[in-house]
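Need a sequence for this fold. Nothing fancy.
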């Protein structure tokens, strides 16, 4: 896959659709966490010979696998745009760009209305700098 480079405007236009994908991912993550807790309780009960829950365990494991597949679909949807998913909670997305002939990453954090920072691939989120003097190149 060819690496896509974004202008600030192009990346900002992606934020609403990426936000929707993140919301879906968070909902799936929440469902996954609840079902995983339930599964672990059932497995613990089985270990203690209180009750054999084999069918319920199998059903929950299948549901967890399905949730993982759904989550992967949303991750793939984000990646297919050329953006890079760095975190789900909080949502962190990087958009490859160019500044002064150097590859950079436009950095968006969930809750920000638009992209206001960038960093190099080596610096990561901790090295975010304001976009004030970001000169876009096509």
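Here you go.
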């Amino acid at each position: 896959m060819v690496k896509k480079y974004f202008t600030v405007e192009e990346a900002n236009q992606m934020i609403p659709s990426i936000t929707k994908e993140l919301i879906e991912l968070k909902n799936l993550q929440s469902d996954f966490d609840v079902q995983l807790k339930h599964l672990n309780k059932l497995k613990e009960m089985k270990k203690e010979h209180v009750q054999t829950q084999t069918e319920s365990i199998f059903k929950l494991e299948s549901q967890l696998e399905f949730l993982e597949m759904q989550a992967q679909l949303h991750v793939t949807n984000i990646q297919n745009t050329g953006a890079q998913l760095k975190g789900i909670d909080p949502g962190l997305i990087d958009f490859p760009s160019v500044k002064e002939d150097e590859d950079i990453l436009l950095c968006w954090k969930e809750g920000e209305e638009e992209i206001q920072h960038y960093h190099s691939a080596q610096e990561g989120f901790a090295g975010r700098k304001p976009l004030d003097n970001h000169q876009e190149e096509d």
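For context: The beta strands are 84-88, 91-99, 102-109, 117-119, 129-130.
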